[in-house]
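Milestone M4 deliverable, item 7.
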Amino acid sequence: MTEEKFSYSYSAKQQAEIKRIREKYAPSAENMDRMEQLRRLDASATRPGAVIASVTGALSTLLFGLGMCCTLVWADTMFVTGVVIGVVGIIGVAAAPLLYSRITRKRRKKLAPEIIRLSDELLDSQ
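Output delivered:
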């Protein structure tokens, strides 16, 4: 006759750690609550405008620097070209905040119904 043994050990701390690690890799639809959805929607309204405005500002700053370089280093041959390039750079730097506000306004208008719906649900549930 063979003797069968059953061994069981339970650790609440270990189980909690396993659940915490599992949640990082397998988020379920129930796990992502409405507040998190609202936060993500709000962030997605401003992110595209910020990226486009940052890239425009950085490239325009480089253009402005190139224009300055043309006027200061190669003043005898490229002065007028440098001034034109510099002015284009200044216009781009000035346009970056305007781009941000316009893109963000359009995104907010597009996402407004969903954000209002989620915020109403959250306010009603409290």
